[in-house]
Amino acid sequence: MLRSRLAGFIVVLISTVLWSTAGLFVQMADLDTWSVVAWRSLFSILALGVFWVVATGNRAATLQATLRGPGMLAILIGIVGGISYIVALQMTSVANVMTVYAALPFIASAIAFFALGERVTTRFVVCGLIASFGILIMSGSALSFNDIVGIVTALVMTVSFAAALVQAKRYPHLDMTLVTVLSTVATGIIALPLMKNSAPEPYQLLACALLGTLTTGVANVLSLVGGRLIRSGEAAFLLLLDVVLGPLWVWLAFDEQVGMPALIGGSIVMGAVTWYLVRPGETAKTA
């Protein structure tokens, strides 16, 4: 049990580091929203599709099981989350998107509380309040119309990913690699007629390839699989590290300025996550 729990923490942490590079690759691609979605989907399908075919034994039965109620809902959640994430990253800064995304553990815990009857610890609540304080500090900047649209779509993305975490845990029989592949196929079909016809430059294709393979593909599957081994709120809380790492990569590569409020708030969020991870466990209490 303890080894499974530790494995869950490690897998989710790895997925967080990979997931945090999404904003960097979207900036590198420098394409319209639907072109990014379409090309990202293509590379994600190629990477995960080949892996699924090789690693899965009874593919027909797995596909049939996935194309039922719980699997179809998970696919729909993936479609909404995948599109809204790219839209958010293109409408506002990576720091703003990550600030909204920081609400993930609280949304995931709320969904898991009602859907699964999960319980949370007092320490989780305290760390969450500390992280919320950091988020409030980070969000203290003027907003434009694009920022507002970006923040709303970031909220949609956050709710979608929280729902995906809970869905993966509620139905452990679901093949999450296949769910990701199918949701990505559907997302690509939606984006295809809406994308620009001009061919991307090689470096833009590389950025989309990295985005599709590392974030939409590997990171998404790792977070959902690892999330099954720990509580939904804990998985989401670990993913809060993305709030700090996402803007950091963009700042290092493109010098996207991060003000002092973002630095202070991000440090508080990082401190809250670190404190939660290093303190010994405690008995869960009803939220």
From TrEMBL:
Domain of life here? Answer: Bacteria
**Sequence intervals crossing the membrane:** 7-25, 37-55, 67-88, 94-117, 124-142, 148-166, 178-196, 202-223, 235-254, 260-278
Pfam families the UniProt entry points to: EamA
Q: Which SUPFAM superfamilies does the UniProt record give?
A: Multidrug resistance efflux transporter EmrE
InterPro entries recorded: EamA_dom (IPR000620), EmrE-like (IPR037185)
Which residues are in the EamA domain? Answer: 7-139, 150-275
Q: Which UniProt keywords apply?
A: Membrane, Transmembrane, Transmembrane helix
Q: Which PANTHER family match?
A: ACYL-MALONYL CONDENSING ENZYME-RELATED (PTHR22911), BLR4310 PROTEIN (PTHR22911:SF135)
Protein name, UniProt field: DMT family transporter
